[in-house]
Amino acid sequence: MQSVSPDFYLKFAQRTREGLPGGVVWTSLLVFLLTLALAKSTVTAEWVGGIEIVTVVALAGAIVLGMLALLPIPWAVGIGLGIVLGPVVAGFAAWPALHAAHPADTLGLSLLHSWWVRLLDGSAITDSAFDLYLISWLMWVTGGWLSWCVLRWRRPLLGLVPGAAAFATNILNFPKDQNGYVLSVLVLTLALLLWTNYTGAIANAVRFRVKLTGDARWDFWESGLVAMAALIVLAIMLPPLSTVDRSVDVESSAFNSWAQLLQTLSHPGQSGLAGAGRGSTGFSADVLLNSSLKRNHDVVFMYTITGDFFGPHYFRGVDETLLSGGAWRYTDTASFKEPIQKMGVPRYSEDYAKLGVASFNVRMISPPAGNSDILFYPARLYKVNRDTLATESLVPTANSAGPFMNIDRLSSISPRTSSGNYAVTVEFSTTTDVDLQAAGTAYPDWVSAYTGLPRNGYRSPAVIERIHQLALQVVAAAGAQNPYDAASAIESYLRGDTFSYTLDPPRPPTGEDPLAYFLFNSHKGYCEFFATAMGDMLRTLGIPTRLVSGYGPGSYDTSINSFVVRSEDAHTWVEVYFPKYGWIEFEPTHDNVYFSIPRGASGNICQRDLLCDTPGGSSGPVGAVAVPTGRAGGTQEGPAGATGPGFRIPDPSTLTKIVGIVLAVLLLLFATAARYLRPRSVMGVWRRTLLLARLAGADQRAGETPYEMGRRLVGSFPEAAEPMRSLTNGFVVAAYAPPDLARSARASVLEAWSALRPLLLRRAFARIRPTRV
After folding, report:
1. Which run of H or E residues covers position 758?
2. Number of Cβ within a 10 Å radius of residue 479
3. Residue 30 is inside which H or E element, if any?
């Protein structure tokens, strides 16, 4: 370092003040992201029900204390306000849980007194609502203290103390699913330390009127790039926190939320399959026929099976019970709702014959937007290990107080989102073709709501009549003598060669019914078109029918021994009611991925592209389901065969390592380039000057002296005149003057090089940039 004139101090201080807002913005962004990672890690640990609120509380603490830190107020005032606001914000956020646990306390006074007494005797910790309040308060402190220490005191290590304690507690007690957050916290912490160190050095230089060398910031970022690359490689090569490969989890937690945000911004007003124009595959509570779709690979949930489950793994979300505006829709306008306690068995009005029982262990990673409370499960609910709210949409007058004829939607109420783990036990049908053919038509009265199409507000009478006539022709051609044979005939007709699957069906002419255009003209569509066609055809024949929206089986991942369900696995199928046996699934979608559903529990059971099971089922984590030979793509994932036999998607864990290694190599290349552009000797500076000049279009000429070279470069690059002259003069002195005088020129050469370098680089990049026509 060297002393400089007072004018430089003033100019340098002015530049620093001008750059301060940008520094504050980047610092705030790093604090915000680090707070988010720490809060999400706490949510993943799932200490208590309703813990999802702590993310908002932590971010609120970071924002509020960050704003106070930037205001010209005494530090004691800012921290004092944070201390006062903490318990208030935590109480407000946790109030729904507090009120549910203590409904008689409306003002909170008796609750506070009760907690105080229980704190004294040590029993308060057993109250889950109290625990949620404390965790919320801790998250406020985590975000607020980090923000204050970084933005006001420039002490990130001090600010990380509460967050590090919470994070360590999470990964030590609940290491499962924390790998992604570990990597995020490490990378963000290193980035924050590097950035605050850099900005702190600049601030100290201004305060003590010291001029930093031109390459000072390069030292920071070169070291940072190398450290970041080493950290990524270390995170990839070290064994995971748990003994199970969680690459799918990391993939989802790291990228899924960001991808969903971009999807929402790109398609405002659309939710899953809803909306006009082009949407993306995903769950929707309505079966609309007005969108082209593109595949979305985001992970939604994973699951394993306990016991023998025969039949399709169709995870129901909602039953479509309202027919309006040309679409089957879900509605709970006049519905019957009843809470079901954890592991409670619903009250059903009918018991069905030939039912098997199996359990599904589901880990919901990313609940569908707008329907984050829905618990997805196959077949008919028996019990689930959460407090839930069951809804029946079509409620007969006599059933206004229960029990359930159907459960059309199951919502999680503790916690209020389906996110996390839940285990659901279901009853599934083991009926055979013969059983269903002999079921008859002795329908109970409540089934009449499912046996016809609305006369008004759904489709025009002319279109309904055309659909009815087509249904009669198909049934007559098959010689069907009972509702089961009729349903099978229509299913086979839609699965025939006449129809084909596509995510981009032709648009019907203006004013033409989309379903009529699909049935009688284009014959091209995705699952919603096939299911709606079968539902309408059966309803015109008086056969009780409903549509169900949810997810298909997904694909089996051998690295984690679980099925993985993605947004592209969203699906709509048909269910037909049979006396004595209840609702039975049918699969009309013709896509070479989903196939006709086998009946009965005897013999080998095949489903979709899975291998056949051995008779009698099997044991193990996936029950009677054998491991598939490949990806079991979703119905709404595009034309079958899109992934050809010559292409294979890498295993997620392998892909994650490849991406990490590529990123580390790129960081090292940047660090190497940074090191090359910062020579330590005068001769090294001159060589690099000649190289950059050649790249910028000015080669050295034969026999040209350094002075001649310098004058020519000044003429070629006039914006670099001053540093070029200074560098040339310093180089001549260093190269040809006596040793004592030569050594004194080194500092001026390095300083001139730091000013010349970006100018020559800009010229070089301008030459290689493609010319616009």
Report:
1. helix 746-768
2. 8
3. helix 6-45
